[in-house]
Amino acid sequence: MSALTPELSQRMDAYWRAANYLSVGQIYLFDNPLLKRPLAPTDIKHMLLGHWGTTPGQNFIYVHLNRIIKKYDLDMIYVSGPGHGGPAVVANTYLEGTYSEIYPNISQDEAGLQKLFLQFSFPGGIPSHASPETPGSIHEGGELGYSLSHSFGAVFDNPGLIVACVVGDGEAETGPLATAWHSNKFLDPVTDGAVLPILHLNGYKISNPTILARISREELEQLLRGYGWTPIFVEGDEPAPMHEAMATALDTAIDQIRQIQIDARKNGDTARPRWPMIVLKSPKGWTGPKVVDGLPVEGTFRAHQVPLHPNTIPEHLSLLEDWLRSYRAEELFDEQGRLKPELAGLAPEGHRRMGSNPHANGGMLMRDLRIPDFRDYAAAVATPGVIGIGDTHVLGPFLRDIAKLNQETRNFRVFGPDETLSNGLGALFEATHRQWDAETMLNDEFLARSGRVLDSMLSEHQCEGWLEGYLLTGRHGLFNCYEAFIHIIDSMFNQHAKWLKVTARLPWRRKIASLNYLLASHVWRQDHNGFTHQDPGFVDVVMNKKATVVRIYFPPDANCLLSVVDHCLRSRHYVNVIVAGKHPAPQWLSMDEAVKHCTKGIGIWQWASNDQEAEPDVVMACCGDVPTLETLAAVSIMREHLPHLKIRVVNVVDLMRLQPQSEHPHGLSDTDFDDLFTTNKPVVFAFHAYPWSIHRLTYRRTNHENIHVRGYKEEGTITTPFDMTVLNDLDRFHLVMDVIDRVPHAGEKGVYLKQQLKDKLIEHKRYIDLNGRDMPEVREWRWNSVT
Amino acid sequence: MSALTPELSQRMDAYWRAANYLSVGQIYLFDNPLLKRPLAPTDIKHMLLGHWGTTPGQNFIYVHLNRIIKKYDLDMIYVSGPGHGGPAVVANTYLEGTYSEIYPNISQDEAGLQKLFLQFSFPGGIPSHASPETPGSIHEGGELGYSLSHSFGAVFDNPGLIVACVVGDGEAETGPLATAWHSNKFLDPVTDGAVLPILHLNGYKISNPTILARISREELEQLLRGYGWTPIFVEGDEPAPMHEAMATALDTAIDQIRQIQIDARKNGDTARPRWPMIVLKSPKGWTGPKVVDGLPVEGTFRAHQVPLHPNTIPEHLSLLEDWLRSYRAEELFDEQGRLKPELAGLAPEGHRRMGSNPHANGGMLMRDLRIPDFRDYAAAVATPGVIGIGDTHVLGPFLRDIAKLNQETRNFRVFGPDETLSNGLGALFEATHRQWDAETMLNDEFLARSGRVLDSMLSEHQCEGWLEGYLLTGRHGLFNCYEAFIHIIDSMFNQHAKWLKVTARLPWRRKIASLNYLLASHVWRQDHNGFTHQDPGFVDVVMNKKATVVRIYFPPDANCLLSVVDHCLRSRHYVNVIVAGKHPAPQWLSMDEAVKHCTKGIGIWQWASNDQEAEPDVVMACCGDVPTLETLAAVSIMREHLPHLKIRVVNVVDLMRLQPQSEHPHGLSDTDFDDLFTTNKPVVFAFHAYPWSIHRLTYRRTNHENIHVRGYKEEGTITTPFDMTVLNDLDRFHLVMDVIDRVPHAGEKGVYLKQQLKDKLIEHKRYIDLNGRDMPEVREWRWNSVT
């Protein structure tokens, strides 16, 4: 029995031709969109940009997805993994009507067609990817590798949703994509939806073949089955049999998905499903020019970009006209340029159209989180300096209760690469589990088929990709990670920040929840991991992105951390970076003080300062938990030994407060900045990350030339926390010496103190220096005991 | 027939016990290294750090590798992929004698044993990974995911070498590792060596199970076969049968490797081999405590770090003593603490010992490249401003001839993620090929089984990992990449820079060739890729690393690019970042001028300046090809319209020249800086990357507050190259307006000119603004035609 009647097959082929026609039109045509007259050189854009190669295959997939959406009434969105699939997604959302609804100027008539064609890859127009401007897209795909992760993120907690994810065979060679296939071990068939990967094996990248197209069918099938999938192969280049094969494959896949869901949801089957996927092997540049200038094009790498160049090679003009006319637009569009009704009827309706599905404009579906009062989780701070249990350990119960309160709405998740416990968030497991669908064994902890935590895969790429997909479809979450290794996803962050920047300017795109990073296990406390685990530079990558979307916080203690996380979870359309400690460390502020301090984001700590009566002699600024500790220890030393010095302590929680108001919405006015940092007094600034970041933020400030910054300067190994600060000149002794060097007022007492501190540092080095003679002293070494 | 005689099996088991004993000793013992007296609390280190979990398995592997090295006289090195395998590699290199040769204080006697134990994860001691301090290591592995890529890099062009690469099953979940299995499609069995992956399936990460241990054996085998490998499984926990099984597996693997090499090298077999690999399934924390405090430890995630805590739980002391004594050290070491001769004899000798193999200290084997005179490749520059063919296109023939000249020594390779042609280096294919061992088809270009270019895999991670492995084993290379997507390997760069920093301080480590990045396809010329492909921030990541190892170059034209690349290929132990254009662009300097300019790294372009007779009114600084073009265009405008202005043009090739001398070895002295930039005149600085980087580098300079920087500020889309500069205020008109705003001397003429330029920009925006009414003007738009 055929999946398609001959009539339906022909209609679908016509629809496909329409999409292909619109795609070629986007790449080439300046005018004459319906070819009502012979193609003339003036009809061609001056600069030809775009990528034909992937387009016809994606058009083919789209029309077939439309069929099954209608047949099964599917709630489905489309993720375009291959690079530069823009023409296909734009063509199809135009054909289904969503494009013109969002952009009325691109109307469904000849004038609209002309604009549709012109705007593509044209100054002032639209990009060549499935960019934010494209209806139905949650995945621009300019950088390759994240389509599958985004798709899985989208279907978590969306049991009715299917994401059809086209994976390019070039993209499939990237590391992130290669491991993303394993996402199927983290999907709960009861409470999550399904991802239908369509591996598009068109055989070529920019100018190379692809690996997966050049291994045997047997190997490819083993690989995909080894990843846990059930592949269905569709292969060929003749349209008619390909339509039938694709329709059959999709029917089979949907049947299998539904059966898996019924088995799990109704029949109590708990075995991990082998979800179906499709391997579509079709020629690159399918239906395009077969031979150009004597060289084969269709089915080769030469079909990757723009196969014909009528502007520079006049003979190509007629080839282009032949190509365009091969789609027989006159059969597809009426005289006014409107898609004929019998074809238009092939598309789904309303929100079932993939360009109009609200999941792909996630802000439309987003509901606020239920968040308990974070003040209820406060650490008791009877007096500044009491030792806490580790700041993230205080945060844990707050996150646990958020997970609990939103258990029913299922719209909050915590992500991490096997580090959630290590990062001090174990309290989560009092209320929820790690979601895991592979085998479990007797001694496993906290694994379950369903749970709010996804941290059982050692892949920062997956955590980031899943979370992005989850947020883009209207939910909330947090990614906890070692500080150094968040650099692994620098480039993914870049792409997400760019997405946020562009979507914020599109009126029809609703805002989504912020992407929240909790970077625990930071540079200063890698006591047993050492140099490889020390890199606080992610904030520098983040600061390069648009000020409208990035926020960076360094809460100095647990109560501030609670306040900051509460704020970040309520915020929208930002990337929030929060750096926090997990080890027992001094606590400074009561909850009331913390709330006030975090609300301002920066402020004088009066209780630690003694300049109330006068101008300070020096400002001791600090940002980050360890720098704050060292700064306050330095202040203690100075207040004991140099009591005549007037010291002001300024703590920075919200790093962006340092920037000028003109550069960042959180930036302090110059007046406020000068009030805090003075206009002419020395500022000794202890900073968590690389010191020059502070200069980058403050170089326009009045007092900038007096700001002296200590921070991580790429020195470290496995050693004590205090020695880490010594190695980087951030320790209390260096900070005091920095003051003495800068404040003439320190006087002779200062000179004397400086010598004492130098001696202390030499003594410290002797303890640390491990050579034979010093062994007995090393034996007496006490961890973190220097005061 | 058994692989091992009972006697040999027992001796190997004893050797394994010795390694395990040394590993536990490293984690725990402060004193009493031979347990000559009962274990006392004072024998235990105060702070217990380290990771037991992976160690016994790696010790097991190492003793078995020793056997086959001796049996087959193998040239083999060891790559320790799992995290924190330090104790194992240190123990084994100590047992084989290499450790004491390099570190005579860690002698092969009781005193040496004590120091060996004490130094591990101890202040002033050594890290817990296979760090640079570890003999035989080319792979620290603090960050996970790169062991296989490094291993393949090491065996390229080393036909006699086998790298035994232990892959952790946690590490195997990372993206980079997941795609690295495909490296076998790029190995030439004739001219390259072999990688023997040993997937160590010990089942757990920090606190989670691993995916590959929780899928069925059938699925795992399919996966590995799908990746193109022939897996040999070794599974169990009883030492005796495991020794036999492992020995048999290794004999089989070596036989298969040799047969593959004979078939390819002698019998002319050109089929892609299915190389053997081993899957070793053994308990995590094997031979360690079985149950602690009532909870199972051996074979669970609880064995990951330190399983016993005698410092805080006194009952653990006797458990630790039992554990240590279970290895029966008295049978393994003599009274003086020296390994007994019948065991010592199991290790290979001389450079066959894996800790002493020169490939793992690549600088020992490194030979200088043969490099032709780069001046012979000069672009003719009759007059400044002539349009070139694209700077990287000029570089191509130079690289081609380097590939040719070093064809026989086979020690130079170019790496890229399918971008070598796109980046303008196609000339390489006149002399060599893309190395590729998968299927080829009729229309492929430049593919061959052997070639100097590895660019057929779309994975920046692979390019970076392969190149690192290639350099670390004493060869030379260059990685060409799109500028934006080099961020994908930020974290790998971080680790490599850290490795270079530490090894530079180790006298026994020889310097290696620099890691050279050529970032073409940069932010300003993403005409058809748009916003997703625009990110010049990699240099900010690079600048965070130690000044002793990082260098950054922005050659403004082709002759400068040639000079810079020549310099970088001759340099040692650096990371060099070179940013260059690939599109036809103006050329400024003759080869002689370029050499002089690049030697200084920064300088006044007298021919473009008119301040020869006097102090300048303004300094126009530029860095990068597009900013240089816009700056010179701005200067042209000013010299025409404001001829009374004295303008000095300063071009920066070597970005690090801007830093103070105290911060970077390339830094200009303050006097030299002031000579160039003046102490009080306005500086309008057009920079390739994010503008604040210039402030970060110059904030200590006298004239810093007059430096006004334009650069990329995260604005862009698909548009014309000129419009890209307009969007970011870096265009010639903005630069002139910046001068007029800052130089009172510009006078009324300046005010008038500014108004004219504003009008021009408005006119430009109108061309670019794509709405219906403006269509006719857009039609007339000429690409890059604004002057």
UniProtKB/TrEMBL annotation, chains A, B:
Q: Which GO terms describe its molecular function?
A: aldehyde-lyase activity
Xylulose 5-phosphate/Fructose 6-phosphate phosphoketolase N-terminal domain location is 5-364
Q: Out of the domains of life, which is the source? A: Bacteria
Query: Which biological process, per GO, is one annotated for this protein?
Result: carbohydrate metabolic process
Where do the coiled-coil regions begin and end? Answer: none
Gene3D superfamilies named in the record = 3.40.50.920, 3.40.50.970
Enzyme class, spelled out: lyase
Q: Which Pfam families does the UniProt entry name for this protein?
A: XFP, XFP_C, XFP_N
InterPro entries linked: Phosphoketolase (IPR023962), THDP-binding (IPR029061), Transketo_C/PFOR_II (IPR009014), Xul5P/Fru6P_PKetolase (IPR005593), Xul5P/Fru6P_PKetolase_C (IPR018969), Xul5P/Fru6P_PKetolase_CS (IPR019790), Xul5P/Fru6P_PKetolase_N (IPR018970), Xul5P/Fru6P_PKetolase_ThDP_BS (IPR019789)
Keyword annotations for this protein, in alphabetical order, are: Lyase, Thiamine pyrophosphate
The cofactors required by this protein are: thiamine diphosphate
Domain Xylulose 5-phosphate/Fructose 6-phosphate phosphoketolase C-terminal per the UniProt entry, residue ranges: 582-783
Q: What is its EC number?
A: 4.1.2.-
Which family does the record assign?
Belongs to the XFP family.
What protein name is recorded for this chain?
Answer: Probable phosphoketolase
